[in-house]
Amino acid sequence: MSSTDLTKPDLAKGGDLLTARGLHKSFGSHEVLAGIDLTVRRGEVVALIGPSGSGKTTVLRSLNLLETPDAGTVTLGEVSVDFAASVPRREALGLRDGSAMVFQHYNLFPHLTVLENVIEGPVRVQKRPRAEAIAEARVLLERVGLADKALVHPFKLSGGQQQRVGIVRALALRPRLLLFDEPTSALDPELVGEVLTVIKELAEEGWTMLIVTHELGFAREVADQVVFMDGGVVVEQGPPAVVLGEPREERTRQFVSRLLKPY
Amino acid sequence: MDLDWDLVQRAFWPILKWGLIGTIPLALICFALGLVIALAVALMRISGNPILAGLARGYVSVIRGTPLLVQLFVIFYGLPEIGLLWDPWPCAVVAFSMNVGGYAAEIIRAAILSVPRGQSEAAYMIGMSRWLAMRRIILPQAARVSVPPLSNTFISLVKDTSLASLILVTELFRQAQEIAAPSREFMVIYSEAAVIYWVICLVLSTGQSFLEKRLDRYVVH
Questions:
Q1: Chain A residue set in contact with B, beta carbons under 8 Å
Q2: Out of A173-187, B1-15, B149-163, which region has the weakest mean confidence (pLDDT)?
Q3: Which domain holds residue B164?
């Protein structure tokens, strides 16, 4: 098996990879998540849509432990955490190892080169051999068309290029689940396409992904399942043709038509 | 009044020499130790632990709320009363280091807090612990931000070390006093000392710009 195979997703299809049950989270008196259930099967692409403030980003951040839910259970692969019980932080952090996140504002490390950004996690955290991490990083950068940018600092790149580096940084961690938090919302319109193309290719390769997005056309084309959230609960979920095409719930219908016809 | 050029020339080398072997080493050592104290105090303040944060806040408050000369005297004249009889030099090192530590702690704390939150989140996302994220991601970026204010602290320190002459440490200004007293040419000798301080600080300012340019290889946002 060559090292490049390790940059490919776990293709053992079927079965639930991620199960979240009854996720609750409040900031002060404001309840952001009021009992979220979510299932992502292996190899599946799930688009999480909803108005701003609906809690979709908090769901994503909870799965990566950037927020700690007040209650609920999350199971990712073999790791299961019940947040209602007082789990030790270290044990809860085990969840984080299974997923990697792509941020809305990229959050690349500005003092490191593109290559250093990508290998920082594999080398410093996962303690993989530096040469191996570099070789793998170069393969991944090549795949998103940034092989020639390996040695430059992020500020020299366009937003679209930075976000592609963000995606490669996530892939280099060899996660089982990719989390995208509005990956194109901060981009100039003409740069959205290049990022969505990369995400689409990853979907075709079989990566399991949970994507918070406002790009309904993209969700329709790429997602296996669309989950519509509003007010901290899941209002409706199902295949994109149903949720986006002929939604059963009034709230979903309003949201979808607002996005499709903004004025 | 005739300017005694001969005295100016004779005084120049001894004063400069004590600048080079007295003032500058004292300032460098105290600055280095002060930065270590400052980093520890800054990390204590943002640790989230109320006891550590309170201790750090109290330390900064005392250092900034009392005159440096008084701090120096407390250590030099006060410590012998509790049985610690130190030479002037170590007393000066302790006093100046603690003083720099208090001021630089606030600079470092502000620099750490100026690094965008997304940076620590990305560091946690790739699996880093709080400490590793601080060391690899946050502090290198904070360092860039804190170079200008820390350089100012260092230049202030170089000048403040003249206070050490009051507890009998031989350095640039003490040497100037020793030449001025018998000659009674206070104006000439002290002005000469002032010029030498000034030149030292000019050189340091140049070093500061150089360092800032070097650290400017990347731009934050």
A1: 64-66, 96-97, 100-101, 103, 105, 107-111, 120-121, 124-126, 153-155, 169-170, 173
A2: B1-15
A3: 5-216
